[in-house]
Write a structure and sequence with these properties.
The chain is of the alpha/beta class. It folds into three domains: about 80 residues, Rossmann fold; about 200 residues, Mur-like, catalytic domain (UDP-N-acetylmuramoyl-L-alanine:D-glutamate ligase); about 160 residues, Alpha-Beta Complex (Protein-Tyrosine Phosphatase, Chain A). It contains 16 helices and 21 strands. The strands form four sheets. A ten-stranded mixed beta sheet has the order 7-6-8-5-9-10-11-12-13-14, with helices on both faces. Strands 19-18-17-20-16-15-21 form a seven-stranded mixed beta sheet, sandwiched between helices. Helix 4 links the parallel strand 3 and strand 4. Helix 6 packs across helix 10, helix 11 packs parallel to helix 13 and helix 13 packs across helix 14. It is globular. The two termini are about 30 Å apart.
């Protein structure tokens, strides 16, 4: 929503909005000339309609309930009401566009595409779910030909989009509050792909390979017969070196300063998307060497009492597997872009939604066992009602059943969690917070309780 607000403000529209949380992002919106209400009241609608000749368009997200006072006032005033996806669809359809969809890696892939285009002098418009380091923002109103957007599948609204190029990173069951099974998700993604002029898809994903007919395919496992490939020849906890191929032909070697095989796949997808849009490879290579991940994607937060603090958005078993594999590479290979070499991996995980935790309980337990020490926060409900027997305690029991010798601790709140961190962490630990909720707030708690904090700039490549 904030990215859309920025784009519309930069395009000359008068924009206002409301948010009950005093988030730091609101200050940036105010700097853009956007009027912010810090409460959601019917009086806000009265205020913005009082002195205008043309009735305003009201844009809402899926999170806005029907009894929201602003929404009710807008309906009473007979104002035109759009869902967030309707506005995004209008922007995507309005110019040459790249829309990135898929179960995992959407934010990272769309961020890398945006960065490569920007470094190539294309100045794209960008509407991303996370902050793009190049712009220090999740939204940018560019003057170039292309628009890059993250196409979220969580509520099925991506079927409204008609991009020039659709990129599908991978596909597996998630968002079970919306999709009853994998077939329903596949059908939605097929509907999205039919709206795209061209489709670029990940050949390494079996669910995509077996269910889709893409215009172009990429892989990080094989190059023969595929449009694009990046085959790793060296990877550790600091970087990945790979050979890049087009149509089976070797083009050049790339050095990716972000570790992890999943990040290589995201990067090859981004390079492929840019190549399909006509950007010469030699212009892209410079940008590859400068890549950094978006905010909350293995984001280095600093040092605390000689412990490395990293924050990640991972909240699905596959995302946890990829993130922990990258962290474990740093521990095992002793190669890392971080300022200390980690000796152990301590994970603080906040399960996201009762429905997801219940559906993937065993998968969560299996993947979290890669860590040396596991701390579990209470489930972040995201508005869901609790499910009987589903909690961080039930997840802990499942982990200990699979890994009887593991250290697993549970907390009832962030205060307890911060005490567990202090008690169970050691010097040179890589402390990794994971989850899509508010788990990163734990560092505010520790900052209050400790007088020895030392924070470094947010830069994984530092």
């Amino acid at each position: 929503m904030s990215a859309l607000a920025k784009i519309m403000a930069h395009r000359g529209y008068s924009v206002s909005g409301s948010d009950k949380r005093k988030a730091s992002e609101l200050a940036h919106l105010t700097d853009e000339g956007i009027k912010i209400f810090l409460q959601q009241s019917s009086s806000n609608i009265n205020e913005i309609t009082q002195f205008v000749e043309i009735p305003p368009l009201v844009v809402i997200s899926t999170a806005i309930p029907k009894n929201n006072p602003e929404l009710k006032a807008a309906i009473q005033e007979k104002l035109e009401i759009w869902h967030r996806s309707d506005l995004l669809a209008a922007l995507i359809d309005g110019q040459a566009s790249i829309a990135v969809a898929g179960s995992h890696g959407k934010t990272t892939t769309s961020t890398i595409i945006t960065t490569l285009l920007a470094e190539s002098g294309q100045d794209p418009t960008a509407i991303i779910g996370g902050s793009v380091p190049f712009y220090q923002s999740n939204g940018h109103a560019g003057q170039g030909r292309l628009l890059v957007a993250e196409a979220d599948e969580s509520d099925g609204t991506l079927v409204k989009f008609q991009p020039s190029l659709g990129v599908i990173t991978n596909l597996e069951l998630d968002h079970i509050d919306h999709y009853c099974n994998l077939d329903a998700l596949i059908q939605t993604m097929r509907d999205f792909s039919r709206k795209c002029n061209r489709v670029l898809a990940n050949y390494d994903c079996e669910n995509l390979r077996n269910n889709f007919k893409a215009s172009s395919w990429w892989s990080v496992k094989e190059s023969e017969g595929l449009d694009f490939a990046g085959l790793p020849i060296q990877f550790d906890g600091k970087q990945t070196i790979a050979n890049f191929f087009e149509k089976g032909k070797f083009i050049d070697q790339i050095i990716l300063p972000i570790p992890g095989i999943h990040n290589l796949s995201n990067t090859i997808a981004a390079i492929a998307a840019c190549r399909l849009e006509g950007i010469p490879f030699n212009q892209l290579k410079k940008g590859i060497a400068l890549l950094t991940p978006p905010k909350r994607r293995f984001e280095f937060r600093g040092l605390w009492n000689e412990r490395l603090i990293v924050d990640d958005y991972a909240h699905h078993p596959s995302e946890i597997q990829a993130t922990l594999a990258m962290a474990r590479l740093m521990v095992n290979t002793k190669q890392t872009p971080l300022p200390l070499t980690p000796k152990r991996l301590l994970v603080i995980f906040q399960p996201h939604r009762y429905s997801r935790t219940n559906e993937f309980l065993n998968e969560f337990a299996k993947e979290l066992g890669v860590a040396d020490v596991i701390l579990l926060a209470p489930i972040y409900s995201a508005g869901e009602c609790p499910l009987e027997g589903v909690s961080n305690h039930s997840l802990a029991k499942c982990i200990q059943k699979i890994y009887p010798k593991h250290q697993v601790f549970t907390a009832d709140n962030l205060e307890q969690l911060s005490l567990l961190v202090q008690k169970n962490s050691r010097k040179n630990d890589l402390i990794l917070t994971m989850g899509a909720g508010d788990i990163n707030r734990i560092w505010d708690k520790l900052a209050i309780q400790s007088h020895k904090n030392q924070w470094l700039p947010n830069n994984l490549a530092a």
